[in-house]
Amino acid sequence: MMLAGPAGEDTLPPMISLLITVEVNPERVDDFARFITEEAADCVANEPGCRQFTVSRSVEKPNVFTLAEFYDDMAALEAHRLTPHFILFQERVKEFDLVVGKSSVLGEVIHA
């Protein structure tokens, strides 16, 4: 499936999106923010299949973050999960007891 452009023509190949909402331990928000921004920057800089990695912080609940990750395909997402920087991030999350809740939605982008 191709994404439709403004005039209906096929313009972009499909992308995989991973949208994650993370509730962070309120005492560890600064640590999480530092680690996740490093992770996002590493993904975009070092993974050819990572098209975008956006980190947002809730205005109403400062310990809630939303991560929006976009990959070329499932293979790129799976490759991401094997990178040293992702493994380090996961280790930090556990070591510093950063996350108290998490939900995610995996999707195929149908319009960009």
Task: Report on this structure.
The longest helix has 18 residues, at 29-46. The two termini are 13 Å apart. The chain has one domain (15-108): Alpha-Beta Plaits, CATH 3.30.70.100. The protein is of the alpha+beta class and 112 residues long. The protein has helices at 29-46, 74-80, 84-95; strands at 3-4, 10-12, 16-24, 50-57, 64-71, 99-108. The protein has a 4-stranded antiparallel beta sheet with strand order 4-5-3-6. The protein has a two-stranded antiparallel ribbon with strand order 1-2. α1 (29-46) packs antiparallel against α3.
Secondary structure: number of strands: 6
CATH fold-level label:
Alpha-Beta Plaits
Largest sheet: 4 strands, antiparallel
Structural class: alpha+beta
The rounded Rg comes to: 15 Å
- Which strands sit side by side, in order, in the main sheet? 4-5-3-6
The total tally of domains equals 1
Order of helices and strands: EEEHEEHHE
Unreliable sequence segments:
1-5
Number of helices: 3
Q: pLDDT average, as an integer?
A: 91
Give the termini distance in whole angstroms: 13 Å
How would the blueprint of this fold be written?
Elements: E1 3-4, E2 10-12, E3 16-24, H1 29-46, E4 50-57, E5 64-71, H2 74-80, H3 84-95, E6 99-108
Antiparallel strand pairs: 1-2, 3-5, 3-6, 4-5
Helix pairs in contact: 1-3
